[in-house]
Structures are given as C-alpha cells and as structure tokens.
Amino acid sequence: MSTPETVPVRVERDGVVTTVTLDNPAARNACTGDMWVTLGEIFRRVGHSGARVVILTGAGGHFCAGADLSGLAGGAPTDGGADGGAGTHLLHAMRVLGEAMAAVHRCTVPVIAKVDGDCVGAGLGLALAADVLWCSDRARFSAIFARRGLSLDFGTSWLLRQRVGVHLAKQMAFTAELIDATRARDHYRFVNEVVSADDLDPAVADLAATIAAGPPLALSMTKRQLDLAGGGSLEQALELETLSQNVNVTTSDMQEAFRAFVEKRPATFEGR
Description:
The protein is an alpha/beta fold and 272 residues long.
C-alpha cells in the first residue's frame, strides 16, 4: 500500500500488522487537507489488504496537533479542517474531513491509536476514532475547539460522548482543558493504558501481536457488534450475535480453535 510522495503519511507493513504514521513533525503532525484525504483512502483499503491490525501514530514525539492551517487559502479556518481553496466551499472541505474520520472508525480490522506528545483538536478525534488508545506518560489531550472560537468537529461531538459519557464530554468541550495522560485514563477514561515514553513502542507492538494472533473474521465481527451496540437495542444486538455466530461456525478458524483446545496448544488462525 503506497501513498503519494508529497503527502507526509507513511504506511509500513510488518507481516499482518500495518502501521500508519503521520509524518509532519515540524508541525507536531498537524494534518493538511491532503493528509486527511490520504488517511481516508488508506483506511478504506487497509481492511482488504490482509492486515489483521492497524497502528495509527505520529512521528517525532507527537501524535497530532489538529489541522495544519498554514496552507489555508480563503474561507474561515477550522481546527479540524481540510485545506480551503479557490472554488472550494468550507462545507465541502469539512465533509471530506468527516469522510476520513469515518473511514478510520469503520475500518474492518482493529485500530490501535499509539499516542505520544500532543493529541488535540482534530488529532483527538482521530485518536478516539481508533478502537483502543495506548499513550505515553507525556501525552497531552484537549478538545481545544472552544479556544479557537469553534464548536466540536472531526467526529468529536459523537466520539467524546461515546467514549466518556455526556457529562464528561461537555466538561472537556466547554473547558478545552489540556489533559495529561494519567487524568485521561483515570478521570475521563478514554485512554486504555499509560506507559513510559520508552516503553510505548514495545507495549503497543505486544498488543498488536496479541490482536493479530486472534481469529480475524471473528474479531472483525466483534468490532462491528460493539460499534453498533451504542445505537441499538438489546434485541438488535442479540440478532447480530446470532448472525455472527452462524458465520463463525462455518470457518476453518473455529475448527482450528476447537482442535487446539483439545490438543492443549495455541491456535493458529488463518482468517478462513
């Protein structure tokens, strides 16, 4: 999977683990419109690439400082926004941005956000669009939009409520406070784990290896079940579970899991 050379987003593959890196460290990985578009394209394709897990991260000691507004031409700036330009209304640019976020959230394989340093504004939305979030002890988070005279964007109006509940989401949005890693984990609880900066890479690599060793089809359906459960009823969840298990029992992976259980050995899943 390749990206345009002029767009600072790197995609690297190591076996069944794909790492997507925002590579604009001079701007703390703030994203241009081209970067948002590229991210959307990557995450629409990666689920069909044979990858079993995706790590989303930033280069140079930061995750993402929101939008790179240095190239914005015309139109009002937006902290999460894509680049404006002649003949492009901000409405269309924001819709492109939204499509990129949706592609990350809808990715059919598990996505790990690996966060070091700043993760604010649209960068916070990007991290929350992942399935789990591991960060270093020097990570800092903020729904910074109010400081810029803006309301929430890049999906944070939905993602924050889903992750932390409505009252804490409003606290983050109304105050635009800068939240350290420990408070993000212990008070707001949208961070799964906090480790030292030196331990972040190996900790996430271990997590990715654990997920990648699991049954890909079953995990993909589990991800979809949990994502849809937030907006559905118990009856809908039960029906989706029924349909999912009917798929699982026809797979070679389930047969392998039962053989491994009987033979008292780890299962080797092939995604079939």
